[in-house]
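>> received
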Amino acid sequence: MNLDPEKLDVLASEVRNAGAFARSRQADVRRTYKKDGSVLTEVDMAISHSLVGRIHDLFPGAAVISEEEDTDASRDAEWTFVLDPVDGTDVYSQGLPSFAVSLGLLDSDRKPVGAYISAPRFGIGTEEMFVRLDPGKRPMINGKEIRLSGDKDDVVQVTTGSKAFRYLDFSSFTGKIRIFGSTILHMLSPAVFSSIEASVAFSCYAWDIASAHAVIRSLGMDAVYPDGTAVEYDDDFLLEKAPLRAPLYTGTEKGRNKLIGMLPPIKQGIS
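>> returned
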């Protein structure tokens, strides 16, 4: 199945519109909680229903994985869309700007190759950041090609989650930590901000990383476990919705190795 460029244009517009919808509803959004204690809002559900349906309309036969609903995704689909309707729901529900509508795209080998990310209140001197990566193309931010700037091998500033102290040993770390509340924005940061070189994710799911993973891979970086192996979107991680088996370090090869040495995992059972 070929992905029609015009349909990808439509899809990109839909994701961007979903981000605008989330922004418009943020002031009045209501917090509820899932069984695992994570935050859920009516906006998450509305965006999930809308985008899942739109993807099926545009790309019949493609698999869709959404954080917020079961979709009976095929194991043998040529293309798999991975949706997080609102990444950073907790901060979103508190009125903070660092949230994103995230749609990643995996190819038939389940490699992340596409991304559509709307961060409608999070940008560099702008009101909105919209990132787009069509398969086989260069990544774009607000219509301009993303080009890495800064020395990404020399890790000084790192993005990570607010519970990092539970998972990582900070005793040898001398840099700076930035926390936004969105794993997608954390993982995307080395590609977007010149002074952020790397990121660490943990206790995450496929929808928390797929889109940003595609972008950083397209720029020559990657995400690996502490033992250096790359994350794989296997049945367990993707279809069974299991979490990452260990912290995931994002950056250049040299940057990742340096970061793993500075912030090794400490949680029992993580290697």
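>> The chain has two domains: 5-145, 157-262.
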